[in-house]
Amino acid sequence: MATIVTNSAQKSKRSPVIFPKNQKALTQLGENIKLARKRRNYTQTLISERTGLSRLTIRKIERGDGTVSIGHYVAVLSVLGLVDDLTKVANDDQLGRKLQDIKLMSKQG
Q: Name one Pfam family in it (predicted).
C-alpha cells in the first residue's frame, strides 16, 4: 500500500480558479478602489498603514488580484469609507425571484 504525503503549506496556498469574465469584474473592482483612493488623495502607503496590509497587497487589490482574501478588500474599503457598498451585492436577486415565482405559480392548481 502506497502512502501519499502532501505538503500542508502547499494546500493552504492553493489559488482560486477565476474565469476570465469573473477576472474582469475583479479588475474593475480594483480599478474602482484605486480611483476612490486617488480621489481622496490617499497614498498606498497610507492605506497600508491604516489597514496593516503590505503595500504589495494594496497594489494587488488595486489590480483585482483574486488571490487576495476578501477580508483584505473589506479592510481597504473600510478605510475609504465604502465598506457599506458590499451590502448591495446580491441585494436585488432578480434570477432568484423569478425562480421562486415560477415555483410558486406551479404550485397553484
A: HTH_3
* Segments of the chain assigned E as strands: none
Give me the mean pLDDT over the 81-85 stretch.
96
Q: At 27, is the pLDDT very low, low, confident or very high (cuts 50, 70, 90)? A: very high
Per-residue CA distances from 78 to 24, 50, 81, 82, 93 (Å): 23, 10, 5, 6, 25
Q: What are phi and psi of 9, to 5 degrees?
A: -65, -35
Contacts of 73 (CB under 8 A, 6+ apart): 29, 33, 61
Q: Which pLDDT belongs to residue 15?
A: 82
Tell me how far apart the alpha carbons of residues 10 and 40 are, in angstroms, rounded to a whole number: 39
* Residue that is written with C-alpha cell 488595486 in the block: 62
Q: Considering the entire predicted model, what is its pTM?
A: 0.77
